[in-house]
Design goal:
The structure holds two protein chains of two kinds.
Chain A (H helix, E strand, L loop, with lengths): L4 E7 L2 E15 L2 E6 L5 E5 L2 E7 L4 E6 L2 E6 L2 E6 L2 E2 L6 H16 L4 H26 L1
Chain B lengths: L3 H55 L23 E6 L9 H16 L6 E5 L1 H9 L17 H16 L5 E9 L5 E9 L2 H8 L12 E3 L2 H82 L1
Parallel strand pairs in B: 1-2, 1-3
Antiparallel strand pairs in B: 3-4
The chains are: A alpha+beta, B alpha/beta.
């Protein structure tokens, strides 16, 4: 039996996960990164993508996360992200619409700020769609 | 003294107003309950982010070039360009709620600025109208309602404020909003959001060189971590402040409506008393008139 460690996942909407886990995989800028027990102390920037948590019983739980950061200290992992949802909670059509909307906005010549906003919205929509459609096929 | 019909009309008009204030009371209490739940949900995140920023700042080179690590200590306090995010409500009828926030913001602007280069970002229609009518320096493109705060709105607000901050159009960001001290009292307060207060504190503490400091890796780079976490913190703060202000306005409105209901009841009581007195006076008068008439008739008969 692998050693466990405590994981806390919080978003602005509330505490998403709090408990002991085997491992957690988070989306970083250069690909996914897995953290297991007794990991070196560090802070990692988290980007839009899919997070996977292996719980005590060995099952994997998925979640779609937004921008944020993860902190590893004293064998405890704290992940703070902008948004965090389960794939089954995502409304695929709404994400699809958000993507269309963001694309539309990016096509129009707008200020840099609006461009960045639509870019961020697009990244969120894309990662939602990716996770949610995979969940549908399972 | 007013006549009976006037008093009756008055009573019914007060009763009609009371129906409205009563309904507003119940709507507010319902909205307050919902908003309070949301406020509780954001709290763990908020404290978590604060801790993480604190921890990160202690382990990085603070001389590093990053817009969120500047303290602007080279500019004298009075001439730093200050940005104020003022959270008011869209409507009145909430006691002194809006007035308190506006007054606090105005006082702070007057006593802390040498120049006229401060900028206002106003959330809520009422505050906007107030500052426009005073001819104050307000961002016209910043138009957001205070009703039902959402994440997407706070994201837009964060983007526009941080944009000005990163372009050095403003040097400091203050938030003026209302907090709930307990379930009965709300208090307007002003909080400095940027530059981070803890930054200055950490810079002030000088650790001796021979002290061992635990090492922290920041992936992919310290800048990336800071640039990821600070906007999140700002966004979380704005969202929290908006939710708390929304809670406070519902609470203030509830109390204002409760007071209105009570004084309406008092007024109706007074008017009822007057009405009954008038009615009795009228009856007495009629009886006297009838009795007087009867007596006069009797006397007339006796004479005959």
């Amino acid at each position: 039996m692998a050693t466990l460690f405590r994981l806390q996942v919080m978003s602005i909407n509330g505490v998403f996960f709090d408990g002991r886990v085997n491992a957690v995989i988070i989306p970083a800028i250069d690909g996914d990164r897995e953290i297991m027990a007794h990991h070196e102390e560090m802070v990692i920037a988290v980007y839009n993508g899919e997070m996977r948590i292996q719980t005590e019983d060995g099952n994997w739980r998925r979640a779609v996360v937004g921008i944020g950061s993860a902190q590893v200290a004293n064998n405890r992992v704290t992940i703070l992200v902008d948004t965090c949802e389960r794939p089954e909670d995502i409304d695929l059509r709404r994400a699809q619409e958000a993507l269309e909307d963001a694309k539309e906005k990016m096509r129009q010549k707008k200020s840099i700020r609006e461009y960045k906003m639509s870019q961020a919205a697009m990244a969120r929509a894309l990662s939602r769609i990716k996770s949610a459609s995979r969940y549908d096929h399972m | 003294m007013a006549n009976i019909k006037e008093i009756r009309d008055r009573i019914s008009s007060i009763e009609d107003t009371m129906k409205i204030t009563n309904a507003m009371y119940m709507i507010s209490s319902n909205k307050l309950r919902k908003a309070r739940k949301r406020l509780e949900e954001t709290e763990p995140y908020f404290f978590g982010v604060q801790n993480m920023i604190n921890r990160t700042l202690r382990h990085i080179d603070l001389e590093m070039e990053d817009v969120f690590l500047e303290t602007h200590s080279d500019i004298p306090f009075m001439s730093r360009k200050k940005g104020y995010v003022v959270i008011t409500d869209d409507k009145g009828l909430a006691g002194a709620y809006n007035h308190n926030v506006l007054k606090l913001a105005e006082d702070h602007i007057k006593s802390n600025n040498d120049n006229d280069d401060w900028k206002l970002y106003v959330i809520g229609e009422l505050g906007r109208q107030y500052f426009i009518s005073k001819g104050m320096n307000i961002d016209e493109t910043f138009r957001y309602t205070a009703q039902n705060p959402t994440m997407s709105r706070s994201r837009k607000i964060t983007a526009s404020v941080l944009d000005d901050y990163m372009e050095h159009k403003i040097d400091e960001v203050y938030v003026v909003y209302t907090t709930m001290k307990n379930s009965m009292t709300c208090e307007a307060q002003i909080t400095k959001l940027l530059p981070l207060d803890m930054l200055q504190k950490i810079k002030d503490i000088k650790l001796p060189d021979d002290v061992y400091r635990e090492e922290f890796y920041l992936e992919p780079s310290p800048q990336a971590v800071i640039d990821n976490i600070v906007p999140n913190y700002v966004n979380g703060f704005f969202y929290g402040a908006m939710v708390e202000a929304y809670c406070s306005v519902q609470n203030s409105r509830m109390m204002a409506m409760d007071a209105a209901n009570k004084s309406a009841q008092e007024m109706i009581g007074d008017l009822r008393l007057q009405y009954n007195r008038q009615r009795q006076a009228m009856i007495t008068q009629e009886i006297t008139e009838v009795a007087g008439g009867a007596r006069a008739l009797k006397q007339l008969k006796k004479k005959k």
